[in-house]
Amino acid sequence: MYLPSDVEYILEVLYLNGYQAYCVGGCVRDSLMGIKPHDYDICTSATPDQILGIFNECGLRCLTVGLKHGTVTVILGSEQYEITTFRIDGDYSDGRHPDEVIFTDKLYEDLARRDFTMNAIAYNFRDGIVDPFHGQDDIKRRIIRCVGDANERFQEDALRMLRCLRFASRFNDLYIDGDTRQALITNAHLLKNASVERIQSELVQILECDNHSNQILYENLIYLLSVVVPELEMDDKYDIARHLIGQHSTGRNVYTMAALLFDFCEETLDDVLRRLRFPNDDIYHIKHISANGYDIVENLDILMSGNVDLDIFARDIISRIGYGDAFESVNYAISYQSVDMDKVSFLFGLKEIVGAHYVDEGRITISSLEINGNDLLALGYQDRKIGEMLNILLDKVIHYELGNKRDQLMWFVKNYKAKQTKS
């Protein structure tokens, strides 16, 4: 297993001072999966004070922000490396944090407290892979399994249930071990004790993954979320949400969240998103996708009648809410109409039209017009008349009655003003 030279240096310094030291957790897991780790966590038998003493003597700067959890951060160049003492976690009386942390000099006891077998693997260049809970076998079998008793792991920290789904989503073809999945269902109610901010953070990471075709994953996600969002309780929620989410493969959580909450009225949607601490910008986009997607569904018969210019319709919706939200609004409608193949076929055609406009010209808005308020002011327009004229021009451009060319727009404005003066 490849280790950066800085990491090798840290392991060697700790070893030469008489302590065990290993890389552990995500960096080992990712390396075994053929993924380049983005950081390296190190665990050691040295206590925090001993770690500080060793690396201070080496002339390195150390941060002590995580000291109460046994973590010292050592800075080498521009990189930071967290070094944590082997530890045993005490009871989790609040279902979120250990009541106490007990340091140990045994690697096995440190690995035994971790969440999943694939995260309970250690490595150094002397001992090689240390894997007492068979995480390598689970990685090869593409299985997520808790270390020890799954019920105990989830009762210690309810967020581990969402972390389980995040790993299943991130690594695409990983599946949840049967005992672990049963423990998810048994302990789902504990999620109500978890921090809403941490729930939202895990949820966003799940939704931003590309694995939107795993039915079991999303059945479990909805089941867990219904603990903190009771509005999700519905008899057919699993099949509907799976199909909706399957259309949203852009990697943006706002689009997938709009699909997940597809059947909520605007007031409930706003309440749920704020309860989950979503940023205002995300709430804005999710509500736009939901509202416009539902409008497409409600007016689908009219759109399919042949009496509506779909090219102009596409330009109009892009102008109002932007290309991304317009595209996802059509996806929303496709998902909603999944049982009517004639309507689905029509909507796929509409999506192609929306997509073509993005390739050709992007979003047409007042700010993208080739003239602006200063031009109108110079022609004698004032106050609200400027806004009214800009909206008229935008409508003309969207409906192909004018090109978005400065000379055409100025000609129209001058003629329009002349006609108004005569009348």
Give a written overview of the molecule.
The chain is built from 21 helices and eleven strands. The protein has helices spanning 5-16, 26-32, 48-57, 107-112, 135-140, 150-156, 159-170, 178-187, 196-207, 215-228, 237-246, 253-260, 266-275, 280-298, 300-303, 310-321, 323-336, 341-360, 373-378, 384-398, 406-422, and strands spanning 21-24, 41-44, 61-63, 71-76, 79-85, 87-89, 101-103, 122-124, 128-130, 143-144, 175-176. The strands form three sheets. A seven-stranded mixed beta sheet has the order 3-4-5-2-1-8-9. Strands 6-7 form a two-stranded antiparallel sheet. Strands 10-11 form a two-stranded parallel sheet. A hairpin with a 2-residue loop joins strand 4 (71-76) and strand 5. The N and C termini lie far apart (83 Å).
